[in-house]
Design the sequence.
């Protein structure tokens, strides 16, 4: 009869796990004793390779160890992100770069976002860019201004820009004048986030001005932002949009007035309802009136 424990010791997976665990303990001990050599590229490469371990918690511990090592680990993580054939390692590399937040990683993360075939790698890369903050902003704006990119990529970039928020403020003031409506729309969303954190007059001025943007999506984004911020000084501007030429803008204005919730908007909404020809928008205006009342 074969001894089961002896059999497990010969199992290549069990052996690989045991080696990885021993290696992790060794590195962790060196870090704790301040004897770890961050210039040992072979050890760093092995740490990255171990992020392909089949055990999720073990992958996390290797990632946390590399994050503790810090920027010295950035080059091997970038190599893993760009070149490793295992998407699990590439995902883990991007997530670890999120923890380290090294600005030198920005162009490599952008490359992964635009070129990696794995959606999780893309998502993890945008998370790292967002965490890095201000050094990522220009690259994110460049993506937003690039035509023919997938909507998912544009959405990722817009989310990251909004996440960075106040850290992107100086770039946002310039980018609101972009020729690209996609950039202007993303900037409006990001400015709304900044205004939530820092309610400064110049931020609200940009949002109000964006209500008259030539692009319907930008107008609607601005209306939604002002509604979410319950910015009462925008009420006259939103009322003007109730007579706008397109239904989407009228709908956005009515919803925004509903969220602001000021009774001064009831009469203009009633007047707009009397003139509104689209049934769906009539329903939105009726809802706005009832909610404000």
Sequence:
């Amino acid at each position: 009869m074969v001894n089961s424990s002896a059999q497990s010791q010969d199992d290549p997976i069990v052996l690989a796990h045991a080696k990885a665990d021993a290696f992790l303990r060794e590195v962790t001990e060196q870090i704790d004793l301040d004897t770890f050599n961050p210039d040992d590229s072979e050890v760093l490469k092995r740490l990255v390779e171990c992020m392909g371990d089949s055990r999720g918690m073990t992958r996390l511990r290797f990632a946390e160890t590399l994050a503790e090592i810090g920027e010295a680990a950035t080059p091997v993580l970038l190599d893993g992100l760009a070149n490793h054939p295992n998407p699990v390692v590439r995902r883990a590399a991007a997530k670890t770069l999120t923890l380290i937040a090294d600005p030198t990683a920005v162009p490599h993360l952008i490359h992964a976002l635009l070129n990696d075939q794995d959606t999780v790698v893309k998502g993890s890369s945008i998370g790292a860019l967002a965490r890095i903050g201000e050094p990522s902003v220009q690259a994110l704006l460049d993506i937003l201004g690039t035509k023919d990119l997938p909507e998912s990529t544009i959405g990722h970039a817009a989310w990251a820009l909004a996440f960075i928020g106040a850290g992107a403020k100086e770039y946002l003031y310039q980018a609101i004048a972009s020729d690209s409506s996609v950039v202007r729309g993303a900037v409006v969303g990001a400015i709304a986030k900044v205004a939530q954190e820092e309610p400064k007059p110049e931020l609200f001025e940009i949002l109000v001005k964006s209500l008259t943007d030539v692009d319907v999506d930008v107008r609607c984004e601005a209306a939604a932002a002002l509604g979410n911020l319950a910015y009462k000084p925008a009420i006259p501007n939103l009322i003007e949009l109730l007579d706008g030429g397109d239904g989407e803008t009228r709908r956005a204005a009515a919803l925004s007035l509903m969220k602001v919730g000021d009774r001064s908007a009831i009469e203009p909404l009633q007047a707009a309802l009397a003139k509104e020809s689209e049934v769906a928008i009539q329903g939105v205006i009726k809802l706005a009136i009832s909610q404000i009342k």
Q: What stands out?
A: The first helix runs from residue 4 to 10. The chain has a mean pLDDT of 94.
